[in-house]
Design goal:
The chain is an alpha+beta fold. Helix content is 19%, strand content 14%. It has one domain (2-75).
């Protein structure tokens, strides 16, 4: 993610296993979310407003939240690292 220009990146665990990779955004960051989706190879249909409630461990606020689902190897161009 840092190679793409994101300087504040936090890795954390989701509160539940998700079958499908999703890229969530908060108000005002939809365009940025779609830009990142293109860079990562995430289909636009998986870019959605962040739902209410906790999705990950911890309480860090994030404008964009990439939730890697069980399909992430097929759905993105991220490396295994």
């Amino acid at each position: 993610m840092r190679e793409l220009g994101y300087v504040f990146v936090i890795r954390t665990d989701g509160l539940r296993e998700v079958p499908e990779t999703m890229l969530y955004f908060v108000e005002g960051f939809e365009n940025e979310a779609h830009r990142l989706a293109v860079q990562l190879g995430v289909p636009g249909r998986l870019v959605q407003p962040r739902p209410e409630g906790a999705l990950v461990e911890g309480n860090a606020a994030a404008e964009l939240l990439l939730m890697l689902g069980n399909d992430w190897r097929d759905m993105t161009n991220l490396d295994d690292a």
